[in-house]
Write a structure and sequence with these properties.
It is built from 19 helices and 14 strands. By secondary structure, the chain is α/β, with parallel strands linked by helices.
């Protein structure tokens, strides 16, 4: 028995070759073979949802209806299946599709609106669970940047050391191409797009028709002030140019995980008087002040806020309209202007997805507050009413109270129908 159990553990812990740390130029070679590793979070979410299939239904005189299997697929969302809510699901996917093309939806704050029990939190838990599983798969392959430093003060934060160089995880899980300076990004991406393997690209586009036969490698967003400082300090200390510094850059596979706040943030507001900005945007790490001497030093910020965790990923905000107006506008800046600003620090780039949820009581108070007029015009509400469809209710009861789910010894065949 022991050998069999050990074998099971070995198989589950074994990592394939894609988990190997790559050099920057190895990553560029990988892009040529698999250009989809450069997808942003909107594109990644869209591909993930559509990967489980879509059913289309036509009714004369009405728009085409789409049923996304993703939300009811236990292999992706685990126990967080959401039955019904077809209109809300269509609206969410429509917004993600629009945002993945760089259109207006990417600049709006999305809020799920519905009464308790309408599966708002459950649907978000499903997306977070699926992101973790999808990013572990070949289809969800993506990478994050590791920063080189020779600063001995930072060696306790290093993931590993190689030839006297310590490698740190970039605090916002920055994508490797965000390292490229803005003035050269256009020419850099043109060269990468021209070098992509045509056969591989054709196959990818065939499997992902929602790209409309066009997928281009683009770079959006900036590195954090922390990462920028580490890179510049490394070049200065080594006395090397930017291109020479690229020889030291490493990247590793990105696996989203809400439990470790890796690429996924989740915030639940307290009462308005005790809300603290640091929970969203991060705080000063006072243990580092003796090392770096100033509260405005880029390395003193701890990057532990939920917006930092999901700056290149996904952020869920529970009961979002309970946030103070200051916090709500912070959300707006993050979605519309693509940055947020901790006190005493430079602006931090935000390239992730924010979805909040709320109930009708908070919604009515929000709509009645004239001071939120500007915020209302930049917010998209997606209604999630309680399910009143008999078949959807039957699925819910079957999933929740079936003999298999409850492990009842005595069969209760008519439980769901009676309910």
């Amino acid at each position: 028995m022991r050998d069999r159990l050990v074998k099971i553990l070995d198989n589950s812990m074994a990592e394939d070759a894609s988990y190997k740390v790559l050099s920057f130029y190895e990553y560029l070679d990988l892009i040529v073979k698999k250009p989809w590793v450069t997808r942003d979070t909107f594109q990644l979410l869209h591909d993930m949802i559509l990967s489980r299939g879509v059913e289309h239904s036509l009714t004369a005189g009405k728009p085409v209806k789409h049923r996304y299997s993703f939300f009811e697929d236990t292999e992706m969302v685990g126990p967080f299946i959401v039955f019904g809510q077809q209109k809300a699901k269509e609206n969410v996917v429509e917004k993600i599709d629009n945002a993945s093309r760089g259109l207006e939806a990417s600049k709006r704050l999305w809020i799920l609106l519905g009464p308790p029990g309408s599966a708002k939190s459950r649907s978000m838990d499903g997306i977070k669970t699926a992101l973790n599983l999808y990013s572990r798969s070949e289809a969800g392959l993506t990478y994050t940047l590791l920063l080189p430093t020779v600063d001995e003060r930072l060696k306790d934060r290093a993931l590993f050391e190689e030839d006297g160089v310590y490698y740190l995880q970039s605090p916002l899980c920055e994508r490797p191409l965000q390292l490229i300076p803005h003035q050269t990004r256009t020419a850099f991406c043109e060269e990468l797009n021209a070098s992509v393997d045509n056969e591989t690209m054709s196959k990818f586009l065939q499997e992902h028709p929602h790209y409309d036969n066009v997928f281009k490698i683009n770079v959006s967003g900036n590195m954090s002030p922390y990462s920028q400082y580490i890179i510049e300090d490394f070049m200065k200390t080594k006395g090397i140019s930017f291109t020479e510094m690229l020889d030291y850059i490493k990247v590793k596979r990105m696996v989203f995980d809400a439990r470790t706040k890796t690429g996924i943030g989740s915030y639940t507001p307290r009462d308005e008087k005790s809300q603290e900005a640091g929970s969203l945007v991060g705080n000063i790490d006072y243990s580092l002040l003796p090392r770096f001497g100033s509260e405005s030093h880029p390395l003193v910020h701890d990057y532990k806020g939920e917006l930092c965790a999901g700056a290149n990923g996904f952020v869920e905000i529970h009961e979002i309209l309970k946030l103070s107006d200051k916090f709500l506008y912070e959300m707006l800046f993050a979605t519309q202007d693509r940055f947020f600003k901790p006190e005493g620090q430079p602006p931090i780039s935000f390239n992730g997805v924010i979805i909040g949820h709320t109930n009708f009581h908070e919604f009515n108070m929000f709509m009645g507050n004239e001071s939120f007029e500007a915020l209302r015009s930049r917010t998209t509400f997606i209604e999630m009413p309680l399910s009143v469809n008999f078949k959807d209710e039957e699925y819910i009861y079957s999933f929740t109270y079936s003999n298999a789910a409850r492990n009842w010894e005595q069969a209760r065949k008519h439980m769901c129908h009676t309910a």
